[in-house]
Amino acid sequence: MKKLYFEGMIKMEERSLRITGADKTFFNKITNTLTKLLIPTKIGINGMLISMKRNNVIKAFENYQMDNENYDSEELEKKYDSAYETYLASLDKYVMDSIYKKVKNETATEFEKNALSKYYEVTSLKEHEYIEYKYRKQKYLLELDYEGIKIGEKEKLKQKYSKFYIAKMDTLYKAILKNYSIKIADHTNIYDSTKEWIYTKIFHTLEDYIQNILSVKINEENLKEIAKEYEKYEAYTVGKLDTRDIIEKNMILLGISRKLFTHSLPLIVAEQCYEKLLKDARSLVQDTKIATRREKAYSMLINLIEDYNVKLLSTKVYWDSAKEREEYKEFWNKYKEIGKLKETDFIEYIKQKEILFIKNDIKKIQNEKIDYSQITKYYKRKLIDYGASKVIKNTYKSKGKYIKIKEVA
């Protein structure tokens, strides 16, 4: 029955690799398995063809990168594009021929059968998300070949291919993020819960880039200013992450994206991503019942509010209204004034900064559709503890007795 099922799918589907946002466990397994197929051998005609096409695209890339007025840049670009397309086609054919043949001849392992089934499952991506499909297919094929090259013995090939690989992957990641940005920007500055999956894809794509591309070139001179942020991110790659950890990690990813993807992930989209994280962080503070965990979640929220205001809003040029712009100017002037305390009285600096953030966030959430009543109470209690708000004592009469109540001013 299984044989008929797979044979039927093989006949119906076109012989082309389909890629989607598969989970990392699946991706790692399929990469490790298919890498073996992509290592050129003396007797493998497909492997020899891949080597030839790979060498052609590397040479075309190097020529295209040359800064020489004696060469026609447009002609070099055309040759590079042509060599790249041919190279991808050879990878695509080799991978699919090998897997299809194994399944059809009933020599495939259970994992390989599941892998092929997974490919069929995601072919619908081409029909309704063609742009994403187009870029992710290229990305996946390049990753497969790169894994094979990394475990090979030819150091010179590794170095040459790595330059081409990083340059092309940078382009693909930017294209993928730009595609997501277009989808997000449909409703400017409004958090749309129906787009939750797009925000998730953005964060996954940023993390994927940092793990697989940025990690390779982090020591480059022009990346020194984000090296510290990269080190912070690395702390979240070990162990199991809870909700607070995930929000903090995504906050770091957004911070790095402001340096690397300012055009592919423009400010207007990054702002909505920050708003999504703020929403998640506030909800976490409200929903956490254990006091120590709630305090940690609150501390994370304060850090996120600072990141949002300093790394993003301080660079914002166009505002929806003059009122919003003036309100932020007022906030920013207070923030800079408080900053003067950092050298003379660090404890007071931290206290005043937190008070400023709390008051500012209370204003922001007043008109939100989400019920933030619990976090508002929590904020007001913090203000009382810091002496930034007072308790007004009132009384009311019940059964002939005056009973005192406390209200936060």
Q: What does this 3D model show about the protein?
A:
The protein is mostly helical. Helices cover 72% and strands 4% of the residues. The protein contains 17 helices and two strands. Helix 3 (45-65) runs antiparallel to helix 4, helix 8 packs antiparallel against helix 9 and helix 16 runs antiparallel to helix 17 (373-385). The protein is elongated.
Strand order of the largest sheet: 1-2
Helix-strand pattern: HHHHHHHHHHHHHHHHHEE
The average pLDDT value, as a whole number, equals 81
Globally, the shape reads elongated
Please name the defining characteristics of this protein.
single chain, 409 residues, mainly alpha, two-stranded antiparallel ribbon, 17 helices, 2 strands, 4% strand, elongated, disordered N terminus, disordered C terminus
Please outline what is shown here.
This protein has helices at residues 2-12, 24-38, 45-65, 73-104, 110-121, 124-128, 130-150, 155-184, 196-217, 227-234, 243-260, 267-287, 291-312, 322-339, 341-344, 346-365, 373-385, and strands at residues 391-398, 401-408. The chain is mainly alpha-helical.
SSE inventory with pairings:
Layout (H helix, E strand, L loop, with lengths): L1 H11 L11 H15 L6 H21 L7 H32 L5 H12 L2 H5 L1 H21 L4 H30 L11 H22 L9 H8 L8 H18 L6 H21 L3 H22 L9 H18 L1 H4 L1 H20 L7 H13 L5 E8 L2 E8 L1
Antiparallel strand pairs: 1-2
Helix pairs in contact: 2-7, 3-4, 7-8, 8-9, 9-11, 10-11, 11-12, 11-13, 12-13, 14-16, 16-17
